[in-house]
Amino acid sequence: MRQRIGLLGGTFDPVHFGHLRSAVEVLERLQLDELRLVPSARPPHREVPGASADQRLAMVELAVTPGCGLQVDDRELRRDRLSYTVDTLESLRAELGVEAALFMVLGWDAFCGLPSWHRWQELLQLAHIVVLQRPDYNPDMPEVLKDLLAARSVDSPERLAQSSNGHIICLSQTPLAISATHIRGLVASGASPRFLLPDAVLDYIETQGLYRP
Ligand code: ATP
Predict the structure, then answer these.
(1) What interhelical angle do 199-208 and 53-63 show, nearest 10?
(2) Strand positions, DSSP E, the chain
(3) Nearest to 79 by CA among 71, 68, 67, 88
(4) Which residues does a 6 A CB cutoff place in the pocket of ligand 1?
(5) Regarding the domain delimited by 4-208, which CATH topology (the fold level of the hierarchy) does it fall under?
(6) Reported pTM
(7) Which atom of ligand 1 is nearest to the CA of 40?
(8) What angle do CA 192, 197, 203 make, to 5 degrees?
(9) Residue 27's pLDDT is what?
């Protein structure tokens, strides 16, 4: 049986239950051996995050409790230059070999932005793509992605088992309309984000004084 590794990249500023629940559901639905959360270093498409790279990594490590089935992969933070997903996938391929199946997990919003990613057309040569529905996001997508979906999507997880890369699967999951932007906004306005993210992460935000104006 080939190894099956899932990756959920993000700024995780901060990590929340939308990320964690999605990760666990993908792990189970696709019967992965591992699902790694991969905090991004200097995100090419996003404004500078509110917490430092070390703080974002610390929050992800606090969220990933023993036994939850998730892991943290900090390779993008250890790199000393811009982190592109294609570089991360190439580095994983070099470690895991051609046989391992890689699953790059993206929320719907992130998938719709794919054509602006560095060397995006090469991503499917390195991994499968798993697209997750996200509540409150616009269902419109660029034409080029509609064509890609028509050519590459499969409708059952079993179809993905036959290859190590190259397919797209859209999964529905428990909809959780949680975003890091909303959590930062709550903290900035003095409101509590409790129960939108793990208590350990909230405690860390409070002790570090993150996201306050
Ligand atoms: P921000 O609000 O700062 O943009 P975010 O909450 O979207 O942050 P990211 O770190 O950008 O979090 O997200 C990482 C990945 O997780 C992306 O692919 C994103 O689409 C997905 N994601 C984030 N929140 C959810 C959610 N509630 N449900 C499903 N997927 C999610």
Answers:
(1) 150
(2) 4-10, 34-39, 70-72, 101-107, 128-132, 168-171
(3) 88
(4) 8, 10-13, 18-19, 22, 106-107, 109-110, 132, 134, 176, 178-181
(5) Rossmann fold (3.40.50)
(6) 0.93
(7) 10
(8) 65
(9) 97
Beta bridge partners of 130: 105, 169
Contact partners, residue 82, CB within 8 Å, separation at least 6: 41, 42, 44
What pLDDT score does 46 carry? 57
Q: Which of 134, 187, 210 to mutate to test the pocket of ligand 1 (most atoms within 8 A of CB)?
A: 134
Alpha helix locations (H) across 105-193? Answer: 108-112, 123-126, 143-152, 157-160, 180-188
pLDDT at 43: 52
Place of tokens 């509590």: 192
Successive 10-residue mean pLDDT values, the chain, 213 residues: 93 96 96 96 62 95 93 92 89 95 94 94 97 79 92 91 93 91 96 98 97 90
Ligand 1 centroid to residue 19 C-alpha, Å: 6
User: What's the pLDDT score for residue 185?
Assistant: 96
Q: What are the boundaries of each domain within the chain?
A: 4-208
Residue 103: closest CA among 84, 129, 126, 80:
129
